Amino acid sequence: MADAPLLGRANDRSRSTGSRIKNARNVDSHSSILHSIFKIFTGGLIAPADTTYATIMILLNSSDPEEQDNLTRQWREHKLEELSFIGVVSPLTAVCLVSTGSWDEISSKGWYIRAIWYSGIVFALFSVLTATQQTLRLHRLSAHKDGLHLTRLCLVRDRKPLDSEEGRAKLVPKPFQVWSWQSSMMFLLMAVACLLVGMLVLVWSAVVKETDNVTYDENLKLAVTFTTVLSLTVAYFFATQVSMMVGVSVE
User: Fold this and answer.
1) Could you give the 3-state DSSP secondary structure of residue 1?
2) How buried is residue 245: exposed, middle or buried, by Cβ count under 10 Å (0-12/13-18/19+)?
3) What is the pLDDT of residues 143-197, one digit of tens each?
4) Mean per-residue pLDDT for 56-60?
5) In Å, what is the CA distance from 182 to each residue of 5, 51, 129?
6) Is 61 helix (H, G, I), strand (E, B) or coil?
7) Contact call for residues 237 and 193 (beta carbons, < 8 A)
């Protein structure tokens, strides 16, 4: 089996490999649903294989140099739009986390609540920083005469001997490369999680005064209501993520 060259130039047809897309979705299969749920907890929210990994695989292994450049250009434009959106949402999340420090009841609560929210501020700030850095990197690469080729180099650093229909090896992105381009989204999700977990701990800390002393008052009603709404919202959120998994794979 011949090895494929590493991301050949767009004008060299012999230096790229072919790819084929297969629709692997099976909405009626219980195993498919369970697999989708499992994928949610193994990177589906941050770097879904269906719409992130498979997309990169397709553009790296396109047999047509012109199509490969078009796919690379399309990926770059959509990635810039995604980073721009994250660059707007992350500061709003940071503002929400910072504003919690002005709540009167926070000073009398345990240190762990403030620690959770302060950690969320760090995640939100690094989400903005990462999105900014990746945006600048893509813009600077685009200014180069071989910008599309260099962009593909940022998506893959090695080749993997996977069998294809043409009998060649396929270019595959390293998992860390995929996660690196999704790191701003990862930091944003962690910031939101810190905000929600901190609020959950806050409302229940007013109920549990001591280790074995639970006060049944309005604070308990508030804690139960908040926990119920949060649980239902999170469950619905995960359900929508599972339903939107398209199941595209590359062979």
Assistant:
1) coil
2) buried
3) 888 888 888 888 876 655 455 445 566 777 777 888 888 889 899 999 999 999 9
4) 82
5) 26, 12, 13
6) coil
7) no
Residues in the chain, total: 251
Q: Is the pTM of this model over 0.90?
A: no
**pLDDT tens by residue, 184-208:** 989 999 999 999 999 999 888 878 7
Non-local (6+) Cβ contacts of 97 within 8 A are 117, 118, 120, 121, 124, 191, 194, 195
Q: Residue 227: name the closest of 203, 194, 207 by CA.
A: 203
Q: How far is CA 25 from the centre of its chain?
A: 21
> Residue 233 contacts by C-beta under 8 Å, 6 or more apart in sequence?
none
Give the N- to C-terminal CA distance of the chain in Å, as an integer: 16
pLDDT, residue 37, reads 53
What's the one-letter identity of residue 143?
A
CA gap 110, 40 in Å, rounded: 32
Longest dimension (CA), the chain: 74
